[in-house]
Amino acid sequence: MAALVCITGAFAQQRKADAQTAQWRYEIQPVVGQAAEGTALVRVWTYSKKADIATSQAAKNAVHGIMFMGYPASNDGARIAGREPLIADPTIESQNEAYFKEFFKEGGAFQRYVTFVKNGTPDQIMKVGKEYKVGITVVVLIDQLRERLETDGIIAAASQVEGKMPTIMVVPSKIYCNNHGCLNEYDNQGVIEQIPDYQKALLDNDLNIAITTLNARLTKRGFEVKNLSSALSSLKTAAAEKSVMTSIEGGAAIAESPIDVLRRTAKADIWLEIDWSTNTVKGGSQKTLTFTLSAIDAYTDFVIGGVSPTTSHNEYSSSFNIALMIESAIQGQFDPFCKTLENYFKTLLVKGRPIKLSIFVWDDFDGNLMTEFDGEELHEIIEDWLEDNTVKGKFGSPDLSPSGTSMIIEQVRIPLVNAKGRDIDPSRWAREFKNMLRNEHNIECNVSSKGLGELLIVIGSK
Fold first, then answer.
1. Nearest-CA neighbor of 132 among 30, 53, 21?
2. 281 pLDDT exceeds 50?
3. Alpha-carbon torsion 121, 127, 132, 135, what sign?
4. Is 339 helix (H, G, I), strand (E, B) or coil?
5. DSSP count for the chain of H helices, then E strands
6. pLDDT score at 245
């Protein structure tokens, strides 16, 4: 009978604990230390009238916290990055009440995504009024948890984001290249510029590891990734890297830098520029790493977003690992950063991709951009076509030279995909323009690209 009473009492305590947990009274914070890729090392503080019951409920609270609460960056010397919740919309919990009740029940699926550190021994137990506040360190398997939520239809998978996902290439920043002696001089029509030497930079093993680490992360999030080393290999000749296109307006030359050529070859929508720095603290027993990640629109050089988290690492001299340091640094900011990239690309799908259109007239062309063809000046024919073939007819005010031999148009909003959902890059879009001039007005032109974001059209030349 005594045993039955004991068992009954334990069940009663557990029911009370479950009821208290359902109110989700807890706190969660990051902990110094290196978690494996796709996981988070956190301390969860659980409130309960029974210290041992608080311990048993800590795992549920930790998983719930990663799902719905996230946690802020640490405010101590460790400077551990914070993390946004996996589920940004708080109403999702109430909309899927039965699902989460089943998920967090005793012995439920939640326990597959959390493990205790030190066998669940509390880090600290504090008496707060009539109850206990118990701190326990756990590891939450965030990537696996996200995949479960995606599979169960609770959150959208990255691959299910509406529309085309951007293609991304990770490259070292110019600052990184400068700090590592990897800049080359480039003569841009008499103006000497310093440009990154990516081939030399890739001789650094840590850089290769950093790029590989991020490429794997991006691929998991559903992005198509272009590899920098492979893109460099695709540049077939040194001459191609130094190609110069000459137009005819006073013999001016339009130079395409090696970076322009690489962008055009790789055809990545977004470049992620990376850099990092380290600092020794606590008498040399700890190393901090500040990792900078900047997203650049490869067509416009527009900065889309960036993060610069800092993480710490103990006993740097004996066990430093750049991959783990990067994972630790970005773990709280990578998901929202990816969301920024997705949202930016969604905007491009709606508003169109902005490119620059540079139009010149060849010397042997019989006329110029102000010459009439079929009762309309050539620049007006071009502008009419742009109005019909850009997204919502959007493009910047044309800058027509007084001589009528050139016209520059910025912010030409071309579609990313055609009516069949197939990708449209600037060169493919320009072929339709070239066909229009030839078929409707018997005018020949040559279309070339400078990098990805500028089209060069020379009227009167094949």
1. 53
2. yes
3. negative
4. helix
5. 16, 22
6. 43
Tokens (6 digits) for 13: 């305590």
Assessment of whether the complete model's pTM goes beyond 0.85: no
Q: Strand 224-226 relative to strand 167-172: parallel, antiparallel, unpaired?
A: parallel
Task: Enumerate residues 6+ apart whose C-beta is below 8 A from 433.
Answer: 382, 385, 389, 447, 457
For CA atoms 210, 216, 222, 223, the dihedral sign is: positive
Q: What's residue 19's pLDDT? A: 52
String of DSSP letters for 313-378: EESHHHH--HHHHHHHHHTTTHHHHHHHHHHHHHHHHHH-EEEEEEEEE-TTSSS-TTSEETTEEH
Q: Bridge-partner residues for 279, per DSSP?
A: 288
Residue whose pair of structure tokens reads 């993390």 in the numeric block = 83
The β-bridge partners of 226 are 169
pLDDT in tens, 12-71: 454 555 555 446 889 998 887 766 767 888 999 998 888 778 777 999 999 999 999 988
The number of CA neighbours under 13 Å toward the Cβ of 41 is 16
Q: Which amino acid is present at 149? A: L
Using an 8 Å Cβ cutoff, are 406 and 395 in contact?
no
Asked whether the beta carbons of 432 and 420 are under 8 A apart, the reply is no
Q: Which two three-digit tokens encode residue 138?
A: 């756990």
* Model pLDDT, residue 265: 85
Task: Give the pLDDT band of residue 2 (cuts 50, 70, 90).
Answer: very low
- Residue count of the chain: 462
Of the candidates 339, 345, 352, the residue with the CA atom closest to the CA atom of residue 411? 352
Position 163 confidence tier, pLDDT thresholds 50, 70, 90: low
CB 216 within 8 A of CB 191: no
**Given CA atoms 388, 389, 392, 395 in this order, what sign does their dihedral have?**
negative
Q: Is 389 exposed, middle or buried (0-12, 13-18, 19+ CB in 10 A)?
A: middle
**Token digits of residue 270:** 């977004």
Min mean pLDDT across 125-139, 178-192, 249-263, 372-386 is at: 249-263
Tokens read off for 39: 């996981």
Decide if 303 contacts 296 (C-beta within 8 A): yes
Neighbours of 26 (CB within 10 A): 23
The residues with which 399 forms a beta bridge, in sequence order, are 408
- Those residues whose C-beta lies under 8 Å from the C-beta of residue 460, and which sit 6 or more positions away, are 361, 362, 363, 364, 365, 366, 443, 444, 445
At residue 13, the pLDDT reads: 52
Q: Please state the rounded mean pLDDT for residues 180-187.
A: 90
| Backbone torsions φ then ψ of 278, nearest 5 degrees | -125, 155
- The answer to whether residue 374 scores a pLDDT higher than 70 is yes
Determine the straight-line distance between the first and last CA of the chain, rounded to whole angstroms: 99
* Integer Cα distance of 5 and 3 in angstroms: 5
